[in-house]
Amino acid sequence: MNPGPLVEPIDTLNRDELARYARHLSLPGFGLEGQRRLRAASVLVIGAGGLGAPVLNYLAAAGIGSITIIDDDVVETSNLQRQVIHRSVDVARPKVDSAAEALRRLDPSLHVRTIEARLSPDNALDLFADHDVVLDGADNFATRYLSNDAAELTGTPLVWGTIFRFAGQVSTFVPGHGPMLRDLFPDIPDPDSVPNCAEGGVLGVLCGTVGSAMATEAIKLICGIGTPFIGRLLRYDALDGEYSTLRFSPDPERPAVTDLTEVAAACAAAAAPGTAAGPDAGIEEITPAELVGLGTQAVLIDVREDWERELSSIPGSLHLPLASVRERGWDAVAETIGRRTERGESPGDIVIHCKSGARSAEAVELLNDAVPPGVRLRSLAGGITAWSAQA
Asked: What's phi and psi for 274, nearest 5 deg?
């Protein structure tokens, strides 16, 4: 199914554009008219990270006329392994600025708009309504569902992609022309139900495979060519080198999206580190400021991997990888803090931390039932990232 071209073509291409896009102009079924449609199109790209980088590069190279980039993050050294639009000299710069500069180098006549912010219930509807197609390269569930709901409310086509470790997925949602994300996955998962890329890892080159597929979908929609992934979920396993396609249909019993109330609550939870593992989950947290207030009274246990501690660590913290907690439970903790327990002293306060709070919350949940009397076990909200920010 193809809903037809999304935009009317511009009148003409200039001489430089004819030379630049010569390989497109000779494509059967695409040609001059397809290129003129690309030049007329306005595209919103959510995220200038792993997926956003190849999406932005290829759409700019293809001849899209106007691109808006929205992202609230800055470039970090760990991004450079996969976010190929950024360079070492861009570290600490806003990603939108780095990405926009790269796109203007590629095509000086491209109109680039940057928004240094998160997609939110406050701005999503206006942004979606102002663009011909949206590509979502977000790294969290709340934003993905916000994109879906905003697309459904505004009637804007949405290209959606995800990556995790060695696998990726792509689908296309066009309101009124097939199923939407909520027909495939009806409920918004908890923010910490799947580790993010920082905790679970991601193969850098996978971003190029999935991001290129997303850019291809946008071009097909804009030009009205081919068969987009409407009602199909493309799945790619990089280790096996296999692609598969899952077909799905609209759910006739699914309630229509009428507002952003539900997804607004999910976005608020995702924006607040540690909230998903709050009191309702039986997990007690401590803020970085409260931890500083404890001084040397608390035992601080780092459940990250060895290589992560090589990059940064909280002075005085003990090391106990999460895998050991999963395997041995409280025995692993007792062994790690062995000197105190051997002297008969209660460790009193134990604070577990990781990078952002997800792994430490899991560790506390695993250990809660085995905590000895007199011991208070807590997870550091926001992890070493939040601790470093206030240090």
From this structure: 85, -10
pLDDT at 342 over 70: no
Q: Is residue 6 within 8 Å of residue 132, measured between CB atoms? A: yes
Pairing status of strand 318-319 against strand 158-164: unpaired
Instruction: Point out the catalytic residue in the list 207, 223, 267, 354.
Output: 354
Give Cα separations from 141 to 93, 196, 326 (angstroms): 25, 10, 25
Q: Which entry of 197, 207, 223, 267 is annotated as an active-site residue?
A: 197
Segment 213-260, tens digit of pLDDT: 999 999 999 999 999 999 999 999 999 999 999 999 999 999 999 999
| Region(s) of the chain under CATH 3.40.50.720 | 15-271
Q: Domain 15-271 has what CATH class?
A: alpha beta
Q: Under a CB-based contact definition with an 8 Å cutoff, are residues 291 and 297 in contact?
A: no
Distances (CA, A) of 308 to 90, 216, 263, 326, 364: 22, 36, 33, 19, 20
Q: List, for residues 8-48, the tens digit of each pLDDT value.
A: 999 999 999 999 999 999 999 999 999 999 999 999 999 99
**Beta-carbon neighbour count of residue 167 at 10 Å?**
17
Q: What is the pLDDT of residue 277?
A: 41
3-state SS, residue 21: coil
**For residues 118 and 263, is the Cβ–Cβ distance under 8 A?**
no
Rounded to a whole number of angstroms, the distance between the first and last alpha carbons of the chain is 54
Class of domain 275-390 as given by CATH: alpha beta
Q: Which two tokens stand for residue 122?
A: 């406050």
The answer on pLDDT for 113 being more than 60 is: yes
Whole-prediction pTM value?
Answer: 0.79
> In this structure, are strands 242-247 and 111-115 parallel, antiparallel, or unpaired?
unpaired
207 an active-site residue? no
Checking 93-97 for CB contacts under 8 A at 24+ apart, the result is: 95/48, 95/49, 95/52, 95/69, 95/71, 96/48, 96/69, 96/70, 96/71
Q: Where in the chain is the domain with CATH 3.40.250.10?
A: 275-390
Q: 354 an active-site residue?
A: yes
